[in-house]
Amino acid sequence: MKYREELAGLPLLDGLTEEEFALVAGRFSEEQFPAGTPIVEQGYGGFKLYVLMEGRIRVYRTLNGSKVLITTMEKPETFGELSIIDGAPTSATVEAESDAVALTLHRDDFYEILESSAVLEAKIWKNLLRTLCSRLRSTTNQVQDYFAINKALCENESFRSFYKLFYS
Predict the structure, then answer these.
(1) Could you give the CA distance from residue 12 to residue 128 in angstroms, rounded to a whole number?
(2) CATH number for the domain harbouring residue 138
(3) Are the C-beta atoms of residues 26 and 116 closer than 8 Å to each other?
(4) Residue span of the structural domain in which 58 resides
């Protein structure tokens, strides 16, 4: 497999035996996305897990017609975890900032892998929970930062003036 080493280093696949890794890795497909291409669009069905192998992507939400950048990602990074779990529409748009290559795992394949072995299922769920916990902690920190900035903008004229120098 072309990206075997990068895939093996993912937290999502941590602790898998060689046999388990081969089973999971064999279900991924490679997809290419030219710069500027939407990979996942906010509000539409998300049925794949993505592992970014090459390039850079941006994740944003559209609010009141404006794009609000959430984060940028570089290899190797996963996205699409929530949608692969519940099949619900995606909460953000993911767009290739540069030419990008991702390994993808369809939701049906994900659940077939989980059903193949209770031990493998437990390992993957544990790893997935760790990944999502890390993202939740990061998001909580971002929200706290935004709240602090918003409070300072509302309460402090000097801060508003300073802020306008950078964001107007």
Answers:
(1) 6
(2) 2.60.120.10
(3) no
(4) 4-167
Q: Three-state DSSP class for 101?
A: strand
Per the structure, the count of domains in the chain is 1
92-143 pLDDT tens trace: 999 999 999 999 999 999 999 999 999 999 999 999 999 888 878 887 887 7
Per residue in 1-40, pLDDT tens?
Answer: 788 888 888 898 999 999 999 999 999 999 999 999 999 9
Scan for tokens 């710069």, then name that residue.
Answer: 35
Half-sphere exposure of 48 (CA within 13 A, CB side): 18
Rounded to 10 degrees, the C-alpha dihedral 125/129/132/136 comes to 160
Which residues is 73 bridged to in the sheet?
57
| Residues near 46 by beta carbon (within 8 Å), at least 6 away in sequence | 40, 80, 82, 83, 84, 87, 88, 89, 90
Residue with tokens 């089973």: 23
**C-alpha span between 33 and 98 (Å, rounded):** 8
User: What does the pLDDT look like over 35-76, one tens digit per residue?
Assistant: 999 999 998 877 999 999 999 999 999 888 888 898 899 888
